[in-house]
């Protein structure tokens, strides 16, 4: 998934926020991805490197789409921006790229993996737009 027009690979590689999890967030680690515990009690993806993800273009969809995800609010499916991404803000440019590039494949993936869709949390996620109904 290419959204390099709004966020560079280098910026993502420096941050690595998508690769580090609190113990209670391990349920969001994509299936088949291993993690290891760090000395600070956080868990890091086994593929995380200083230069970015070692999986390159072979990342699971959840990783490839991050910091975007599908969330549910009632019977609505929303495309959301994870607030933990410090680089992207809910702007018209981000919404346009998300609508054109990210929403279609992520929505199709989410429909096939309904158990991976979590409830919308306005403290953790910024709603971009509705993408469907359950």
How would you characterize the largest beta sheet?
4 strands, mixed
Beta fraction of the residues? 25-35%
Number of helices: 3
Specify Rg, calculated over alpha carbons.
Answer: 14 Å
Report how far the terminal alpha carbons are from each other.
Answer: 24 Å
Low-confidence stretches: none
Helix content: 10-25%
How would you portray this structure in words?
- The mean pLDDT is 91.
- Helices cover 25% and strands 27% of the residues.
- The chain is globular.
- The chain is an alpha+beta fold and 134 residues long.
- A four-stranded mixed β-sheet has the order 8-6-7-9, with helices on one face. A three-stranded antiparallel β-sheet has the order 1-3-2, with no helix packed on it.
- It contains three helices and nine strands; from the N terminus they run αβββββαββαββ.
Please outline what is shown here.
The chain is an alpha+beta fold and 134 residues long.
Layout of strands and helices, then pairs:
Layout: H1 9-15, E1 20-21, E2 35-37, E3 43-45, E4 48-49, E5 52-53, H2 61-65, E6 68-73, E7 76-82, H3 92-112, E8 118-119, E9 125-133
Parallel strand pairs: 6-8
Antiparallel strand pairs: 1-3, 2-3, 4-5, 6-7, 7-9
């Amino acid at each position: 998934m290419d959204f390099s027009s709004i966020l560079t690979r280098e910026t993502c590689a420096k941050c690595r926020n998508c690769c580090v999890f609190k113990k209670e967030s391990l349920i969001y680690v994509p299936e088949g991805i291993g993690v290891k515990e760090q000395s600070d009690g956080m868990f890091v993806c086994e593929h995380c490197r200083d230069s970015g993800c070692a999986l390159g273009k072979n990342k699971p969809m959840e990783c490839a789409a991050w910091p975007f995800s599908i969330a549910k609010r009632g019977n609505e499916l929303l495309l959301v921006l994870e607030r933990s991404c410090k680089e992207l803000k809910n702007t018209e440019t981000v919404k346009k790229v998300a609508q054109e590039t990210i929403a279609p494949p992520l929505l199709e993936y989410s429909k096939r993996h309904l158990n991976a869709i979590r409830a919308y949390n306005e403290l953790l996620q910024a709603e971009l737009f509705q993408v469907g109904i359950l």
